[in-house]
Amino acid sequence: MLEVKDLHTFYGKSYILQGVSMQVGNGEIVGVLGRNGVGKTTTLRSIMGLTPPKSGEIIFAGRKIHKLRPHLIPRMGIGYVPQGRRIFPRLTVLENLKTPVTEGKIERLLLDEVYAFFPRLAERSNQPGGTLSGGEQQMLAIGRALVRQPKLMILDEPTEGLMPLMVKMVREAIKKMNRTKEVSIFLVEQNLETSLEVCHRLYLMEKGRMTFEKKVTEIKKEELLHLLGI
To answer: What is the DSSP letter of 92?
Structure first.
Protein backbone atom coordinates (compact mmCIF):
# COMPACT_ATOMS: atom_id res chain seq x y z
CA MET A 1 0.00 0.00 0.00
CA LEU A 2 2.75 2.45 0.99
CA GLU A 3 6.49 2.27 0.46
CA VAL A 4 9.00 4.91 1.54
CA LYS A 5 12.49 4.57 0.07
CA ASP A 6 15.59 6.34 1.37
CA LEU A 7 13.82 9.57 2.31
CA HIS A 8 15.92 12.65 3.08
CA THR A 9 14.08 15.74 4.38
CA PHE A 10 15.32 19.09 5.67
CA TYR A 11 13.80 21.94 7.66
CA GLY A 12 15.90 24.80 6.37
CA LYS A 13 19.46 23.67 7.07
CA SER A 14 18.36 21.10 9.68
CA TYR A 15 18.82 17.56 8.36
CA ILE A 16 15.81 15.71 9.84
CA LEU A 17 15.17 12.51 7.84
CA GLN A 18 18.44 10.78 7.03
CA GLY A 19 17.46 7.89 4.78
CA VAL A 20 14.07 6.72 6.10
CA SER A 21 12.77 3.51 4.53
CA MET A 22 9.60 1.69 5.61
CA GLN A 23 6.40 0.21 4.26
CA VAL A 24 2.76 -0.47 5.09
CA GLY A 25 1.14 -3.54 3.54
CA ASN A 26 -2.46 -3.91 2.41
CA GLY A 27 -4.72 -4.18 5.45
CA GLU A 28 -1.83 -3.62 7.88
CA ILE A 29 -1.63 -1.38 10.94
CA VAL A 30 1.97 -0.22 11.23
CA GLY A 31 3.27 1.92 14.07
CA VAL A 32 6.35 4.07 14.61
CA LEU A 33 7.81 4.60 18.07
CA GLY A 34 10.58 6.95 19.10
CA ARG A 35 11.51 9.84 21.32
CA ASN A 36 10.46 13.41 20.58
CA GLY A 37 12.44 15.08 17.84
CA VAL A 38 13.65 11.99 15.98
CA GLY A 39 11.60 12.71 12.83
CA LYS A 40 8.32 10.80 13.25
CA THR A 41 5.99 13.70 12.40
CA THR A 42 8.36 14.87 9.65
CA THR A 43 8.02 11.43 8.05
CA LEU A 44 4.24 11.83 7.96
CA ARG A 45 4.47 15.40 6.67
CA SER A 46 6.86 14.27 3.93
CA ILE A 47 4.42 11.58 2.82
CA MET A 48 1.62 14.17 2.68
CA GLY A 49 3.75 16.65 0.74
CA LEU A 50 3.64 19.24 3.53
CA THR A 51 7.41 19.06 4.07
CA PRO A 52 8.64 17.80 0.70
CA PRO A 53 11.67 15.48 0.78
CA LYS A 54 14.89 16.56 -0.89
CA SER A 55 15.46 13.03 -2.19
CA GLY A 56 14.00 9.53 -1.99
CA GLU A 57 10.73 8.02 -3.18
CA ILE A 58 7.23 7.64 -1.77
CA ILE A 59 5.07 5.06 -3.55
CA PHE A 60 1.38 4.71 -2.76
CA ALA A 61 -0.69 1.92 -4.33
CA GLY A 62 1.97 1.52 -7.04
CA ARG A 63 2.20 5.22 -7.92
CA LYS A 64 4.98 7.64 -7.02
CA ILE A 65 3.55 10.56 -5.06
CA HIS A 66 6.59 12.37 -3.63
CA LYS A 67 6.44 15.11 -6.28
CA LEU A 68 2.70 15.77 -6.01
CA ARG A 69 1.28 18.98 -4.54
CA PRO A 70 -0.15 18.47 -1.02
CA HIS A 71 -3.79 19.04 -2.00
CA LEU A 72 -3.62 16.20 -4.55
CA ILE A 73 -2.37 13.53 -2.15
CA PRO A 74 -5.64 13.03 -0.18
CA ARG A 75 -7.42 12.57 -3.51
CA MET A 76 -5.17 9.55 -4.14
CA GLY A 77 -6.80 7.80 -1.18
CA ILE A 78 -4.76 8.86 1.87
CA GLY A 79 -6.47 10.25 4.97
CA TYR A 80 -4.36 12.33 7.34
CA VAL A 81 -5.13 13.13 10.98
CA PRO A 82 -2.40 15.51 12.17
CA GLN A 83 -1.15 15.93 15.70
CA GLY A 84 -3.37 18.41 17.54
CA ARG A 85 -6.50 17.42 15.54
CA ARG A 86 -6.75 20.72 13.58
CA ILE A 87 -10.53 20.83 13.47
CA PHE A 88 -12.40 24.08 12.75
CA PRO A 89 -13.55 25.21 16.21
CA ARG A 90 -16.31 27.56 15.06
CA LEU A 91 -17.85 25.11 12.60
CA THR A 92 -20.32 22.52 13.83
CA VAL A 93 -19.48 18.83 13.89
CA LEU A 94 -21.52 18.34 10.72
CA GLU A 95 -19.86 21.28 8.97
CA ASN A 96 -16.41 19.91 9.90
CA LEU A 97 -17.35 16.55 8.40
CA LYS A 98 -18.43 18.26 5.18
CA THR A 99 -15.17 20.17 4.67
CA PRO A 100 -13.28 17.41 2.77
CA VAL A 101 -16.06 17.10 0.18
CA THR A 102 -15.03 19.22 -2.80
CA GLU A 103 -17.76 18.24 -5.25
CA GLY A 104 -21.50 17.94 -4.65
CA LYS A 105 -23.03 17.10 -1.29
CA ILE A 106 -21.83 14.64 1.28
CA GLU A 107 -23.78 11.40 0.98
CA ARG A 108 -25.95 10.42 3.93
CA LEU A 109 -24.44 6.92 3.80
CA LEU A 110 -20.96 8.32 4.46
CA LEU A 111 -22.22 10.36 7.40
CA ASP A 112 -23.99 7.32 8.81
CA GLU A 113 -20.76 5.31 8.56
CA VAL A 114 -18.85 7.98 10.51
CA TYR A 115 -21.62 8.19 13.09
CA ALA A 116 -21.59 4.40 13.42
CA PHE A 117 -17.90 4.60 14.34
CA PHE A 118 -18.44 7.57 16.66
CA PRO A 119 -22.04 7.81 17.97
CA ARG A 120 -21.08 10.84 20.07
CA LEU A 121 -20.58 12.83 16.87
CA ALA A 122 -24.16 12.11 15.83
CA GLU A 123 -25.37 13.36 19.23
CA ARG A 124 -23.34 16.57 18.81
CA SER A 125 -23.74 17.13 15.07
CA ASN A 126 -24.94 20.74 15.52
CA GLN A 127 -22.45 21.60 18.27
CA PRO A 128 -19.38 23.78 17.47
CA GLY A 129 -16.23 21.68 17.21
CA GLY A 130 -14.38 23.89 19.68
CA THR A 131 -16.82 23.02 22.47
CA LEU A 132 -16.15 19.27 22.25
CA SER A 133 -13.88 17.45 24.69
CA GLY A 134 -10.39 16.50 23.55
CA GLY A 135 -11.46 12.92 22.89
CA GLU A 136 -14.51 14.02 20.91
CA GLN A 137 -12.37 16.38 18.85
CA GLN A 138 -10.06 13.46 18.04
CA MET A 139 -13.09 11.42 16.94
CA LEU A 140 -14.13 14.34 14.73
CA ALA A 141 -10.67 14.61 13.19
CA ILE A 142 -10.66 10.89 12.36
CA GLY A 143 -14.25 11.05 11.11
CA ARG A 144 -13.41 13.96 8.82
CA ALA A 145 -10.63 11.90 7.23
CA LEU A 146 -12.93 8.86 6.91
CA VAL A 147 -15.44 10.85 4.84
CA ARG A 148 -13.13 10.61 1.84
CA GLN A 149 -13.11 6.80 2.16
CA PRO A 150 -9.30 6.46 2.25
CA LYS A 151 -7.36 3.32 1.47
CA LEU A 152 -4.65 4.42 3.90
CA MET A 153 -5.10 6.41 7.10
CA ILE A 154 -2.16 8.27 8.64
CA LEU A 155 -2.59 9.13 12.32
CA ASP A 156 -0.20 11.34 14.30
CA GLU A 157 -0.46 10.83 18.09
CA PRO A 158 -4.22 10.07 18.12
CA THR A 159 -4.37 9.35 21.87
CA GLU A 160 -2.17 12.24 23.02
CA GLY A 161 -3.60 14.00 26.07
CA LEU A 162 -6.77 11.88 26.25
CA MET A 163 -8.43 10.39 29.31
CA PRO A 164 -8.15 6.57 29.60
CA LEU A 165 -11.77 6.01 28.50
CA MET A 166 -11.24 8.10 25.37
CA VAL A 167 -7.93 6.32 24.66
CA LYS A 168 -9.82 3.02 24.72
CA MET A 169 -12.51 4.37 22.36
CA VAL A 170 -9.92 5.63 19.88
CA ARG A 171 -8.07 2.29 20.01
CA GLU A 172 -11.29 0.41 19.26
CA ALA A 173 -12.12 2.79 16.40
CA ILE A 174 -8.69 2.20 14.82
CA LYS A 175 -9.09 -1.57 15.01
CA LYS A 176 -12.66 -1.43 13.70
CA MET A 177 -11.64 0.86 10.83
CA ASN A 178 -8.96 -1.61 9.84
CA ARG A 179 -11.16 -4.67 10.28
CA THR A 180 -14.49 -3.56 8.76
CA LYS A 181 -13.36 -1.04 6.12
CA GLU A 182 -10.04 -2.74 5.29
CA VAL A 183 -8.20 0.55 5.72
CA SER A 184 -4.42 0.29 6.06
CA ILE A 185 -3.13 2.46 8.91
CA PHE A 186 0.20 4.17 9.56
CA LEU A 187 0.36 5.28 13.17
CA VAL A 188 2.73 7.49 15.14
CA GLU A 189 1.95 6.90 18.81
CA GLN A 190 3.81 7.57 22.05
CA ASN A 191 1.43 5.36 24.02
CA LEU A 192 3.25 2.02 24.09
CA GLU A 193 0.19 0.05 25.22
CA THR A 194 -1.86 1.41 22.31
CA SER A 195 0.89 0.56 19.82
CA LEU A 196 1.22 -3.01 21.09
CA GLU A 197 -2.55 -3.52 21.15
CA VAL A 198 -3.53 -2.21 17.71
CA CYS A 199 -0.45 -2.61 15.47
CA HIS A 200 0.59 -5.62 13.43
CA ARG A 201 4.15 -4.36 13.00
CA LEU A 202 6.30 -1.70 14.69
CA TYR A 203 9.26 0.44 13.67
CA LEU A 204 11.57 2.26 16.05
CA MET A 205 12.96 5.57 14.87
CA GLU A 206 16.19 7.20 16.05
CA LYS A 207 17.95 10.29 14.71
CA GLY A 208 16.06 10.40 11.42
CA ARG A 209 16.31 6.68 10.60
CA MET A 210 14.29 3.52 11.18
CA THR A 211 16.55 1.38 13.34
CA PHE A 212 14.28 -1.52 14.31
CA GLU A 213 11.33 -3.35 12.75
CA LYS A 214 9.41 -6.40 13.97
CA LYS A 215 5.98 -7.98 14.04
CA VAL A 216 4.20 -7.19 17.29
CA THR A 217 3.72 -10.90 17.95
CA GLU A 218 7.53 -11.27 18.01
CA ILE A 219 8.18 -8.32 20.34
CA LYS A 220 8.55 -8.44 24.09
CA LYS A 221 7.46 -5.30 25.91
CA GLU A 222 10.69 -5.30 27.92
CA GLU A 223 12.66 -5.25 24.67
CA LEU A 224 10.86 -2.12 23.50
CA LEU A 225 11.26 -0.39 26.85
CA HIS A 226 14.99 -1.06 26.68
CA LEU A 227 15.28 0.21 23.12
CA LEU A 228 13.29 3.34 23.99
CA GLY A 229 15.44 3.93 27.04
CA ILE A 230 12.49 3.81 29.44
So the answer is: B
